[in-house]
Structure formats: structure tokens, C-alpha cells
Write a structure and sequence with these properties.
Layout: E1 2-4, E2 12-14, E3 24-27, H1 31-47, E4 56-60, H2 62-70, H3 80-93, H4 98-108, H5 116-129, E5 149-155, H6 157-161, E6 171-174, E7 178-181, E8 186-189, E9 196-198, E10 201-204, H7 211-218, H8 225-242, H9 246-254, H10 264-280, H11 286-295, H12 300-312, H13 318-335, H14 339-346, H15 357-369, H16 385-400
Parallel strand pairs: 3-4, 4-5
Antiparallel strand pairs: 1-2, 5-6, 6-7, 7-8, 9-10
């Protein structure tokens, strides 16, 4: 076979098929900057007529934000300059609303796999990329094989932190056909990615994750895990405090309004936010617990539980304190806050579907326990993924009805 000389002249470069290189383009991480950089790179490759020589396009973090948008069009590589213009238009002109974000979060909480990944996708990724993208990865077909084959990549943080024991399962790859750990040779059909597994067997089939969740999954690393936690916590708290009703409550606090003008339910929610902030900043949480006790004066059950928190606090490990605060938050939200009163306080005429108390409770608990991603994937925290692949391959093959194990 032959290729045109890259000089643009009429000379031909002749190759034996076995000698033709397999070329891959690797997109870096970096949020919006990485998204824009990859789009610009692909646009220039298209202008130089080199896109059709690329076999694989792989991205992490912000690069996946670019890729997931492009691959919604089966012929994007033939019109890459137009796609670049469309992306610029979307990023600079498309508006999103507070209600759009609330709708996304309310919808995501209906799934038992709801976690901070959903919150990150809705609060940060969606306002940046300005596209809900309800399609899934396996929907991105390429029947004519016109485009490089896309590979979305992410890091398994738990395995990265334990890489001395699990050095083969750090990278996780997602394509439209299969998803899994290339280092272990363990894959499942991507359309099953999101289903509930136990020991390699599907317990319950669920819808595949959509592209916005994928962007949240692949784009949730900010370099330093400590800084990531600090940034994401402030992002979530800032969003909660911006909800109509909380703004009015914060203004009342700042101006020292009398207790009679302060909704006790709103005050309870804000104290729970203060409690989370104090715990993560290493500050003394007991004064805030005392404030909650004062707010729940006359409620014997609440007083008893809060007193137990105070009595046991200094004897508990950090993990035990996290569990205590998560349980306390859930108990306060579900049993000691009057739901109609709170939702009435949050609702303004401009908001038709304000976030529910149930959703607020879930978010608070996720913040304390720092829960990311699904708990049910086929190799989640398995102590020996290599042996696990060999022992459960037949089960996985049966469960997914396809050859999804790459040995």
C-alpha cells in the first residue's frame, strides 16, 4: 500500500501493510483547557489531512469532555472545523439555569448508585461543558469506521493508593464496546456498565451511565487529592447556600435578626453545613453540636442523641467520627426537621421544582462519608483482581451474553 508524501508533493511513500504504524493521539487532562486544546489539535490534524491516519483517540479528564461531544456525530472527522465552531458557540453562548442543575440532581438521586460523582457532574462539569448529553457511550456508533477509535480513561484512586499490592488495576478504560481494567484483562460489555454486580454476576441490570456522568467520572481528578476534596466540598456547600431560601437565612444570620424571625429548620440545615466545614478543617465540632442541642430544646430524643455525640466524641477515631456525623446528619434531616416547613422556606415563585429535603439529606451524608462512584462494579476493591478474573470469567461471560473478558 502507499501513502501520499506529507510534503504535499505528488511523490508516494510505499509501505508493506505489516509495516504501517498504528498511530494514537493521547489527550491530556486539565478540565476546560484540555477540552479546548484537544479540539484545536484535532482541527489542525484535519486541516493537514492527517486525521484518517489515526487509529486510536484516547483521553483523560477534560479531553474526554471534547471526545464525548464529537463522537455523537458518526462523521465528525470529515467536518472537524465545523465541529470546532459548534463547540466554540456552545461554550460561549449556550445558557444554563439553576433549574437545569436541580433537575439533573433530582433525577440522579432516583438511582441507588447516586454519589458525589453525580453531584460533580451536575455542579461543575455541566456548567463548564454546557451540555446534558443524555446519550451513552455505547450509543456512539461508527458504522463506516471513519473516525479514530475512542478510548476514555480514568484512574482507580483506591488502587492507585494501594499500588504496591494492586499495580495492575490502576487504569480503567471505557470504549463503546467494553469497559474494564486492561492491566488485569478484565472487561464487561459497556452497556452493562452501571448494573449491580456481585462476584462477577449481575444482580440487577441498570441503564448504562450517560455521557454527562462519564465526564464527571473521567474528569474528577484535580491533581492533589487534598485540594480536590477542599475544592469539591466548597463547590457543593457554595451551591447549597445559593439555593433560594438559604440566601435569606444567611442574610438574617449576618444581621443578627431575632430568633423569632429565623426558621428553625433552615437554621438546623445551616448548622449541619457548619458542622461539616468544621470537621474537615480540623476545628472543634462540639460548639456546633451544642448549638444544635439549643435549637432542639424540648425534643428529648434529639437532645439524647446529641448528648451521646458529645460524650463519645473524644474517644472516637476519625473514621468513627465520620460515621457519627453522617448518622447524626441523616437523623436530624429525616426526624427533627419539618419537611413541609423547610421546603416552603426554600421555595420562591421563580423556582418551580426546588431540591427536596430527601436530596439535601443524601448530599449531606455523601459529604461526610465522601462517597464517589458506584459500590457495585464487577472488580470494586477486590483484593486480588488477577485471580478474580480467572475465577469469574465464565460467570461474566454468561452474565453479559458476550465475550467481554480479554485474557
Amino acid at each position: 500500500m502507499f501513502l501520499n508524501d506529507l510534503t504535499g508533493e505528488n511523490d508516494k511513500c510505499y509501505f508493506h501493510e505489516a509495516d504501517v504504524p498504528q498511530i494514537a493521539v493521547l489527550g491530556s487532562g486539565g478540565g476546560l483547557r484540555a477540552m479546548v486544546a484537544l479540539m484545536g489539535t484535532l482541527s489542525e490534524l484535519g486541516a493537514q489531512k492527517l486525521l484518517d491516519s489515526i487509529q486510536y483517540l484516547c483521553g483523560v479528564s477534560g479531553s474526554t469532555w471534547c471526545m464525548s461531544s464529537l463522537y455523537n456525530d458518526e462523521k465528525w472527522s470529515l467536518q472537524v472545523e465545523q465541529k470546532e465552531a459548534e463547540m466554540v458557540e456552545k461554550l460561549t453562548s449556550k445558557e444554563i439555569t439553576f433549574q437545569d442543575i436541580i433537575d439533573r440532581i433530582n433525577e440522579a438521586t432516583r438511582d441507588s448508585n447516586f454519589s458525589l460523582t453525580d453531584i460533580w457532574a451536575a455542579l461543575y462539569v455541566y456548567p463548564v461543558v454546557r451540555d446534558k448529553e443524555t446519550k451513552s457511550v455505547s450509543d456512539q456508533t461508527d458504522k463506516e469506521m471513519l473516525n479514530p477509535y475512542p478510548i476514555y480513561a480514568a484512574i482507580d484512586r483506591w488502587r492507585l493508593e494501594n499500588k504496591d499490592k494492586h499495580d495492575k488495576g490502576i487504569w480503567f478504560e471505557i470504549t463503546r464496546h467494553e469497559s474494564g481494567y486492561p492491566g488485569c484483562g478484565a472487561f464487561i460489555e459497556t452497556s452493562k456498565f452501571g448494573s449491580i454486580f456481585k462476584e462477577g454476576e449481575i444482580l440487577e441490570e441498570r441503564d448504562e451511565m450517560d455521557l454527562l456522568y462519564l465526564k464527571g467520572l473521567c474528569g474528577s481528578a484535580l491533581g492533589s487529592w487534598k485540594e480536590s476534596k477542599k475544592f469539591i466540598t466548597s463547590l457543593i456547600k457554595g451551591w447549597i447556600k445559593s439555593i433560594p431560601g438559604f440566601n435569606r437565612m444567611l442574610r438574617g444570620r449576618a444581621t443578627n435578626e431575632s430568633v423569632s424571625t429565623v426558621d428553625p429548620n433552615m437554621e438546623c440545615m445551616l448548622l449541619l453545613l457548619d458542622l461539616h466545614e468544621a470537621f474537615n478543617d480540623g476545628m472543634d465540632c462540639k460548639p456546633i453540636v451544642n448549638a444544635l442541642m439549643a435549637l432542639q430544646e424540648g425534643n428529648e430524643e434529639a437532645q439524647k442523641q446529641l448528648q451521646q455525640v458529645l460524650e463519645n466524641w473524644d474517644q472516637q477515631s476519625e473514621a468513627e467520627q465520620v460515621k457519627t456525623l453522617s448518622d447524626l446528619c441523616q437523623e436530624m434531616c429525616l426526624n427533627y426537621i419539618d419537611q413541609p416547613s423547610l421546603e416552603e422556606a426554600l421555595t420562591l415563585n421563580s423556582i418551580s421544582n426546588v431540591i427536596s429535603l430527601k436530596v439535601m439529606t443524601i448530599i449531606f451524608c455523601l459529604l461526610f462519608e465522601w462517597t464517589w462512584g458506584t459500590k457495585f462494579n464487577f472488580l470494586h476493591k477486590h483484593p486480588n483482581p488477577g485471580e478474580y478474573v480467572l475465577s469469574c470469567s465464565a460467570v461474566l461471560l454468561k452474565a453479559t451474553k458476550d465475550k467481554t473478558i480479554a485474557m
